[in-house]
Structure formats: C-alpha cells, structure tokens
TrEMBL record:
This is DAGKc domain-containing protein. Pfam families: DAGK_cat, YegS_C. Residues 1-129 form the DAGKc domain. The keyword ATP-binding applies. The keyword Nucleotide-binding applies.
Length: 311
C-alpha cells in the first residue's frame, strides 16, 4: 500500500488540490490510502498509522514542516519505510537539495512506481530529528514573529516566502542576538565517540544565528549552507556572529546567493556532533518548526544514512 500523507493547510491551502492530482495519478497503479492531517504536527501520527497499516512508501504532500513531522515518525518506526515528497508547501526548502522532481506530480508518480531510493542523513537536535536544517537565534525570532502575526490574523495578503522575508527584514535591525558557546565534539561520523576528537571551540560570544545544516537552503530565500550535502555523514555549521544592525542587511543579501561564508563575521565548518551551551533552555527551530530545548546545554548530532528517500 502507498500512503499519501496530506497537510491540507500547506502552501496556504494549495496542497489540497495537489493531493487530489496525486491521488488521481496514482490510483490505477496500486492500493493508495490518503491520510489527511487535522492539526499542526499531525503528520507524525498519520505517518505512524500508515506504517502500522503496512505502507510500503509514505508520500508527503506538503512543505518542510509536513516533511519534518513525517520524518519524526519514519525515524522512530521499527520498520524502514521510504519517503517520497510532492512539494506543496511555501518555501519547500528541503527538496531544493534533494534533486528530485518534487514539483512535477507525474514525474514523482513515476519515481514512486519505480521505488528507487537513496539514503540520506538525519540530524538530531535535543532529540528532535531534522532533515534540512536546525537553527537558533535570528531564525527563531523570525518564526516567533510570524506565528504572532498569524494568530493576530495579520499579513494574510502575503504568501509564505514573501511573508518570511518581510518579517525577517522587520526583525533584522532590532534583534539582540544570543550568547552561547559551541563545541564540536565529533569531527566525523567515523570517529568513535570518546576518541580524542578534533575539537573546535567557536567560543562564548554573541551570535546572531547558528544553523546546523544537512540541506543547503532555508527561509524560502536563503542558500545558508552552500556546501552542505545530505549524505556525507556530517552537518555544516554556519554561525553568524554579532554584526552591528547596519552590517546585517548586506550579509543577509549575500546569504540569498550563498556567498556569505567569506564574510569576516561568518564562521562555517562541519562535524558530526556538537554541544551548544546557552544561558537557559533556548528555543530552536528544526525544519522551520519551533521547539523549546529541554536544557541549557543542547546536543546536536547526525545519524548517517538513517532515512531512505524515493528518487
Ligand atoms: N490540518 C492542519 N491544519 C493546520 N495546520 C496543519 C495541519 N496539518 C499540518 N499542519 C501544520 O502546518 C504547518 C505548515 O506546514 P508546512 O510547513 O508543510 O507548509 P508551509 O509552511 O506552507 O511550507 P514550507 O514550510 O515549505 O514553507 C506545519 O506545522 C504542519 O504540522
């Protein structure tokens, strides 16, 4: 059975029509069951249900948030079930690194029928899996602002990516930054835990934003980690230090094209495990979904080849 997990709210409601087209295109090929989400995060329960009912493949019709919650269920299941993604969200950042025809329903249906898969790494932040990126600092401030605007019913006239960019610009000058120290505890996934690890202390200083990237793009418009690879057993860390408010727009503009890494205030490196020591349990985002960390010290790691993607 092929399970089609649909978030009807994704892409400002666009996902509902895309899902109908996907169901129609798949219906003559195999047993297809639609699992429609009812609330935020319900993709995880719907995916678990699909796996329990014997799904051979889970097709997510939604955006990055939908994929994120489906992956929570896929990576905790007792059986390895591959994931296919039909892009129906707003930013659809993860599929930009994947290279699948995620925007082409008929090409995706052919991929699903062929069932060829590719293993990719899954990141873990404070125990929460992510496939694209996890971040702390400015990106969290922007998501918090966006959620406030949504609950107040403001900015309905703007689509998702434009809304994100407008909100980000509005928050850019006033954001205060956060203090934390970051340590790379494992340079590569081939190192044994506890081995004399290559350690780099980025230092206790004010950060504007720290992103742990598996994929390259985030925020709808930014190529935040242009060197990240989904299958190298590593996460790319991009740490933007304390810039004066007036230096910030230039760096963010460079991030749109992915040319920000050479800026003096941007540090980037890669590794397989990290600890971030903050002053209090921070808010973080994983694939664009907000979480509160369980403690002030947050661990971030990677599980190499932990998820199969239909390609
Ligand atoms: N039935 C539902 N009603 C409201 N929200 C839902 C529902 N089902 C899922 N959600 C939530 O909607 C949020 C947004 O989904 P998603 O990220 O897939 O779409 P998007 O924001 O349009 O796209 P992107 O993240 O790629 O920009 C997620 O937190 C998801 O869990």
């Amino acid at each position: 059975m092929i399970a089609v997990v649909v978030n009807p709210a994704a892409g400002n409601g666009r996902a509902r029509n895309i899902a109908s087209d996907v169901m129609r295109a798949l219906q003559h090929r195999e047993d297809i069951v639609e699992f429609t989400t009812r609330t935020r995060g319900d993709e995880a329960q719907q995916t678990s249900l699909a796996i329990e009912r014997g799904a051979r493949c889970v097709v997510v019709v939604g955006g990055d948030g939908s994929v994120h919650h489906a992956v929570r269920a896929l990576t905790s299941a007792t059986r390895r079930v591959p994931l296919a993604i039909v892009a129906a969200g707003t930013g659809n950042d993860f599929v930009k690194s994947l290279g699948t025809p995620a925007h082409d329903i008929h090409a995706m249906v052919q991929c699903i029928t062929r069932a060829q898969t590719r293993p990719i790494d899954v990141g873990l932040i404070d125990g929460t899996p992510f496939v694209n990126a996890a971040g702390l600092g400015f990106d969290v401030a922007v998501l918090e602002r966006m959620q406030q605007k949504q609950t107040q019913g403001r900015q309905q006239w703007l689509g998702g990516t434009a809304a994100y960019v407008v909100t980000a610009l509005g928050a850019l000058l006033g954001y205060r930054g956060f203090d934390a120290s970051l340590r790379t505890t494992l340079a590569s996934s081939h190192d044994a835990p506890g081995a004399p690890a290559w350690q780099e202390r980025i230092g206790h200083h004010a950060h504007l934003m720290t992103v742990f990237a598996n994929g390259q793009c985030f925020g709808g418009a930014f190529r935040i980690a242009p060197e990240a690879r989904l299958d190298d057993g590593l996460l790319d860390v991009v740490d933007i230090g304390a810039l004066t408010p007036w230096q910030r727009p230039a760096v963010f503009l460079r991030a749109v094209r992915g040319t920000h890494l050479s800026h003096a205030a941007v540090r980037s490196h890669f590794g397989a495990a990290f600890t971030l020591h903050c002053e209090a349990p921070p808010l973080y985002e994983a694939d664009g979904e907000l979480y509160r960390a369980s403690a002030a010290t947050v661990t971030i790691s990677v599980r190499p080849a932990a998820l199969d993607i239909i390609v």
